[in-house]
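Course exercise 7: structure representation. Students receive a sequence record and must write out the corresponding structure in token form. The form below is the worked example handed out in class, using FtsP/CotA-like multicopper oxidase with cupredoxin domain (422 residues). Read each field label carefully; the graders check that inputs and outputs are placed in the correct fields and that the protein name is recorded exactly as given.

STUDENT ID: A-19
EXERCISE PROTEIN: FtsP/CotA-like multicopper oxidase with cupredoxin domain
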Amino acid sequence: NAKEEEIAYTVRAQKGETEIFDGTKTKTLGYNGAFLGPVLHLSKGDTVKIKLINELDEDTTFHWHGLEVPGDADGGPHASLKPGEENMVEFKVTQEASTLWFHPHPEGSTSEQVYNGLAGLIYIEDDNSKSLGLPNEYGQNDIPLIFQDKTFDDKYQLNYDAAMNEDGTIGETLLINGTLNPMLSVKKEKVRLRLLNGSNARNFTFKLNTGDSFEQIATDGGFLNEPVTLKEITLTPSERAEIIIDFSKLDTDDDLALINDEDGSILLPFQVSEQGGEDSNIPEKMNDFTITEEEMNLPVTKNVEFFGMMDKVTINGKKFDKDRIDFTQEQGVTEVWEFYNKPDDMGGMIHPVHIHGTQFKILSRNGEEPSENEQGWKDSFSLEPDETVKVAVQFKNKGVYMLHCHILEHEDNGMMSQVKVE
Ligand code: C2O
Ligand code: CU
Ligand code: CU
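STUDENT ANSWER:
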């Protein structure tokens, strides 16, 4: 990278009030604001210093989901700050262009803090992302969309306890970027949507109501080699996808909307103006992600079994213990981990698996090649009941990292292990 810069940010976790419903204030949490958070813009090669300030009434941590940073900068449950405390983290950005996010990770209350509003985005750019010619006008044709479901009480307050279902909070009100019933105005051009499933427990299957296709260009941790044409995409909690919808090609007499194919509900209606935009490009080749023969032939050295529902969730039969290291791995060495979701007598459920501090490669699902849009860097993936997924994992840095289910209530209920990288 040509320029290596030093970037300084201050991120405060704070309490606030937000007018989600007209004329009423809802108590919320946010980073550098009342609700949700800013986009932290980073470039590959940057040295980043972030001052962390906890202005909440409770302990919190600042976790960079998807960032390949040393364990002591990762913001897991060990990095807890008490109310009023500050800390400073420093790291170098060594990974490629991607859309990541950040959220709290205090032991036992991650789910409630995220639910109440603590979540922000991280954009990494690099020489490749700047030269591809993709839509990149923030808020115009390059739009972040954080999908979260909430339950409000009769006073329009976020009610975590009321939202609690058996396996996590499933709310009946959808917020996108913290907004109720949003509508997105776009021009007749290619529009890039950076989708984040920021829900605690709900899966979304995004689809256009007209059944038209779109292109997926990026996974959790970077660009796909080529755009992948899809009619729908499912994201489990914490997964991201960048997609491009070409509104110049769609029949705008239809009322266009993104819907959730799981229940047919409208997620986001589009208002398409008559105006055409400047046409951006979707290049044929965007990245050079590869899975080598060597990686394919590595033996499995870690077996990880996800099991259970509600508060009976375990990984390899155990619940989280802050003082126990469950796995060790050598820095810079690639190992193949085999994940299995063991069904119970109820059949079991999907667990979204996430590992901190690494972008990994999905090698196979039940012995088969993963779908084209999973052949890219991932930090989270869905693990279906009775499914076996092989993943090639390498850590660039040292430290202690979490491995957990990203149904945040499962994580808080102990579906989390620790990996020590030496
Ligand atoms: Cu999204 Cu343990 O993280
Ligand atoms: Cu994470
Ligand atoms: Cu789970």
